[in-house]
Design a protein that fits this description.
alpha/beta, Udp-n-acetylmuramoylalanyl-d-glutamate--2,6- Diaminopimelate Ligase, Chain: A, domain 1, 2 domains, seven-stranded mixed sheet, five-stranded mixed sheet
């Protein structure tokens, strides 16, 4: 259990995106199995409710009695925090009560919900910390796994040099986003650095630029450098056998590649493009199987 104000305020206060002002505050706690955040709605039990321009207009048009009734309903549903977004003026009645935390932000209400939803998702939701790097190639998030010395960091530098992006090098924190996607992010204290064998630590942000590192990204597949990866083959047709690995109860395709192969970066770019085609329903293994079956049927 965690104090809501302790979770929200320190995380965003230092960011230029967020300018939180604590209008009222009281100690309260959130539970992982509760609905966490949503737009202002006294009929819903979201523990954090966000008031945008539309909601504040609705609230201010109510009679004073109706406003107090709505606040009593929120308190009854154990709503912990109200956030006035879009830099709107906080209704006076909210600052005069002390039953619910009231914060304000200059961000749009939808942005507040998105940012806080993702923050709480990896604070209190299911998560795994994996010894793996994370690259974004052709808009596809790829975990890079392999034993120490397999060449993960050298591969990361090679892909950055080809114009791709990265999220983490040695350790990747995987968690569910608010929309149910498995996301990857770096551990904060290691986010900027890559340790390259025979070279030492490199500050990638300063070497390649801050724009090349993404804070988080959805996971789509896994590249394993070397052998003996703990994966299994799905039961599938001969032409469609795939290696896969389960992360947070989701299965992801695995390509097991030799780190010494020529043009490894090109091979990985091809794997990423294949993920895109698979998402569009254009699966090469299925198409190949269909063509082979067609050829066999037409054979004399």
């Amino acid at each position: 259990m965690a104090n809501v104000a302790q979770l929200i305020v320190p995380y965003f206060h230092a960011s230029d995106k967020f300018q939180w002002r604590v209008e009222t505050s009281r100690p309260d706690y959130i539970h992982a199995d509760s609905h966490l955040i949503g737009h202002y709605n006294p009929a819903r039990s979201n523990l954090i409710q966000v008031i945008g321009e539309q909601e504040v207009r609705y609230f201010c048009n109510l009679s004073r009695y109706a406003q107090w009734q709505q606040l009593a309903q929120l308190e009854k549903q154990q709503v912990s925090t109200l956030i006035c977004a879009s830099d709107i003026q906080v209704p006076e009645i909210l600052t005069r009560q002390n039953a619910i935390n009231v914060l304000s932000s200059r961000l749009l209400d939808t942005d507040v919900i998105t940012h806080l939803g993702n923050k709480f998702a990896h604070l209190i939701g299911p998560a795994e910390i994996l010894q793996a790097g994370f690259l974004v190639v052709e808009n596809q998030g790829l975990l890079i796994t392999g034993k120490s010395g397999a060449g993960k960091s050298q591969l990361l530098l090679s892909m950055l040099d080809r114009g791709h992006h990265w999220v983490s090098d040695e350790l990747t924190h995987c968690y569910y986003s608010q929309t149910g996607q498995v996301m990857g992010r770096a551990l904060d204290e290691l986010a900027s650095f890559v340790h390259v064998k025979h070279v030492g630590p490199i500050n990638v942000d300063k070497t390649f630029g801050l724009s090349r590192r993404l804070q988080q990204y959805p996971l789509a597949g896994i590249i394993h450098l070397g052998e003996n990866v703990q994966i299994r083959i799905q039961q599938a047709p001969t032409y469609e056998q795939k290696l896969n690995r389960t992360i947070l109860n989701r299965r992801f395709p695995v390509w097991q590649l030799d780190p010494e192969v020529n043009n490894l970066a090109v091979v990985i770019e091809t794997c990423a493009r294949q993920l895109t085609l698979d998402a569009w329903g254009q699966r090469a293994t299925v198409e190949l199987a269909q063509e082979l079956d067609k050829t066999l049927c037409e054979a004399p």
